[in-house]
Amino acid sequence: MTERGIEIVYGRWLIEGAPRVLLIDTGAGYKYLDEWKGDLWNAAGIPSPSADSETNEAIAFGYLVAWFLGELIFRQYICRDTERAVIAHFHEWLAGVALPLTKKRRMDVTTIFTTHATLLGRYLCAGSVDFYNNLKNFDVDAEAGKRGIYHRYCIERAAAHSADVFTTVSHITAYESEHLLKRKPDGVLPNGLNVKKFSAVHEFQNLHSHSKDKINDFVRGHFYGHNDFDLENTLYFFTSGRYEYRNKGVDMFIESLARLNHRLKVSGSKTTVVAFIIMPSQTSSLTVEALKGQAVVKSLRDTLESVEKSIGKRLFERCLGWKEGDNMPDEKDLMTNQDRVLIRRRLFAMKRHNLPPIVTHNMINDSEDPILNQLRRVQLFNYPTDRVKVVFHPEFLNSANPVLPLDYDDFVRGTNLGVFPSYYEPWGYTPAECTVMGIPSITTNLAGFGCYMEELIENSADYGIYVVDRRLKGVDDSVNQLTSYMFDFCQKSRRQRINQRNRTERLSDLLDWKRMGLEYVKARQLALRRAYPTSFDAADDFHEAIGHTEQKISRPLSVPGSPRDRTGTMTPGDFASIQEGREGLDTEDYISYKPPTSANGVNANTIPRAGSDDEEEDSIPVPIRPKRQSISLKLGPAPNGHGVGSETKAA
């Protein structure tokens, strides 16, 4: 490939673990692009318009990867290396062009394709479509054509059907893929996090306090002249992610904030909520008001520090010369007229005749921005009487930001609650990141993360994972449920919030790649068995073949009661999915589980509730589902015709 002008760099990725990486210069392959497009049409019937630069990049990368795999297999053949199999795992349609090519060329490669979302699903949900109730009825080709993504959809569908093993990141996405991509996934590979990156051992409460102080500094500047609320009694809520107004549930979040504002005012609550919306949009610059607010507060702080030093110096000298019978130093002796003038000037600069802005940047076409328009519609303008204040920050955060100088991770640590009421969220990293940092979050049962945690933990709200029902409830009922969650959170005392953060942080083990990665081992083992069935004994125990996958979850010190099992120790793939029960999804490695019941119909694995937010110590472990005695694993034929064609039992 190098001889043909394709630059390839091999090295180590400078992250924890230092994985080996091959970097392929796709730009060098553009001279072959027209030839490759013609071959893609002849081989797979996939069109490729010239104006779509993203598709052009995907085609160039796909053909270069297929080229590389072909060279690798040829070298193995020359070296007579027949003991090692080549497993190629592709993620998303952008990397999937090589899949139909490897199948067409009959390469000796075992392939896995994982979709983290479907193209058509994302586009349909962004519009006003009742997606989940009509999923079985969509004319997928017509819908993709209407939205100008038919060629991309063809790549995604071809990748799903060409792989030996097809997987998704959640059960709800598996159900979606079955209808939109027309292939039932073979399994679910949940997303994980590098928990070490976010864990602060026993210091995360201190980190929360430190980060919150920095957010307090921003709030003081942004709301200067209207700082009539107590920061010690102020909660910081936030939502973040790509700017997908409906898919990310921003519409529901803003509507719920308006209702929360009304409920707090009616109840006479002294709690103030500052809600941040962190989503990148088209901007031209920071607003003058945003910059001025920080400058005014900084000027006030600098002046008072200067006056404080001069007063301290005079007080020290005054005390040195004090004799018995002299008067104690008072304000007149300590503050000079110059100090009073300086302070008065800064106080006059704090006067404000307009309301604090709801957005920190000058927006391009702000009259057409959906978030700003809804904020105007519900009249969340940061009035002094409002108990809910709003700050829309249309850029991702970083420590070089002149207004809010915090990296995203540090910002999240300083907040009190993350709110992510997504309508379309195949997994949802944002609430997962909140969990490993000990920040409670709100998600939905239409998000993969929400379904996973709801099925995994009994009473997930007690552990700081609130799940809004957007599947079976109407929009208004879902908004009211979200409002109630936020209102109830506002009623918690500081001690209750600290205890809840402790419990939330202890769930981080459930999201660690050390745990989630076991599902990738299963997927690769299944792919090998399908590609090379004669190399395996059909009677082999599948779980024994991949090793013992049981991992014990650390026991938290403070947990509410009603767990499903006292010793639950499971891997993510062994948990039942809410979609399997409701939608009839029967993926091959994921069988729905129902807890056993006693003779009187009571769940045999539950115990009475024995805890609350006020309790700091409790000996009950995290309530996770117990491990099944056996599961039925069907190693049926793969789309290319290879397979075992038999059923084995896995302990």
Properties at a glance:
four-stranded parallel beta sheet; disordered C terminus; alpha/beta; 651 residues; Rossmann fold; six-stranded parallel beta sheet; 3 domains; 22 helices
- Counting DSSP H or I runs of 4 or more residues, the number of helices is 22
* Structural class by helix and strand composition: alpha/beta
Percent of residues in helices = 40-55%
Tally of extended strands?
16
Distance between the termini: 46 Å
What name does CATH use for the topology of the largest domain? Answer: Rossmann fold
Point out poorly predicted stretches.
545-610, 626-651
> How much is the average pLDDT?
84
Describe it for me?
41% of the residues lie in helices and 12% in strands. The protein is an alpha/beta fold. It is elongated, with a radius of gyration of 29 Å. The protein has a six-stranded parallel sheet with strand order 11-8-7-12-13-14, sandwiched between helices. A four-stranded parallel sheet has the order 3-4-5-6, with helices on both faces. The chain has a two-stranded antiparallel sheet with strand order 1-2. Residues 545-610 and 626-651 have low confidence and may be disordered. The protein has helices at residues 33-44, 53-78, 98-104, 119-126, 140-146, 150-162, 171-180, 195-198, 204-222, 250-267, 288-320, 331-334, 337-349, 370-377, 408-414, 429-436, 448-456, 475-491, 494-505, 513-531, 542-546, 578-583, and strands spanning 8-12, 20-24, 87-91, 110-115, 165-168, 187-188, 234-240, 272-278, 283-286, 361-363, 388-393, 417-419, 441-444, 465-468, 631-635, 646-650. The protein has three domains: 8-188, Rossmann fold, CATH 3.40.50; 195-286 and 357-509, Glycogen Phosphorylase B (Rossmann fold, 3-Layer(aba) Sandwich); 290-349. It contains 22 helices and 16 strands.
